[in-house]
Amino acid sequence: MSARLLIGGLALALLAGCEGRPAPTGLQGDPARGRIALAQHACRACHMIPGLTGPESYVGRPLVDLAERRFIAGKLPNTQANLVRWIRDPKSIDPHTAMPAMGVSERDALDMTAWLLAPEQ
Ligand code: HEC
Question: Which of 63, 64, 71, 82 lies at a 20 to 30 A Cα distance from 31?
């Protein structure tokens, strides 16, 4: 068997192994559940969010392309853990922010960030 065939076969085997699994984004949480949690907590009242319908609201910035942001609310380095922190208790990070703490559980916040950082559009 030629080396080229061998390598091709290996690549196919690797691809087959990945079939049906989500892209390896390194994110924790369940994005589908997160989308529901975002709707249930009415985040859409202040933010436009990809994949969620609601009023045209610009109280907070649209939560689009969140994965591209360097900082959350201009304060915290944008990591999934910091996003969870912000969503659960924004005033602990910026006492003057207009965003209220909305009693979001750790699990819901994690799932929300999974959606916000990689919305399935
Ligand atoms: C009453 C309006 C209001 C509600 C409701 C609200 N937010 Fe916000 N949110 C804001 C405002 C205003 C900011 C901007 C804060 C700043 O820059 O200081 C913000 C900032 C954010 C940011 C940082 C965005 C960025 O551009 O850096 C995230 C993420 C966020 N909100 C997520 C949520 C989630 C998730 C919910 C629902 C649990 C939610 N927000 C509910 C008003 C709101």
Answer: 71
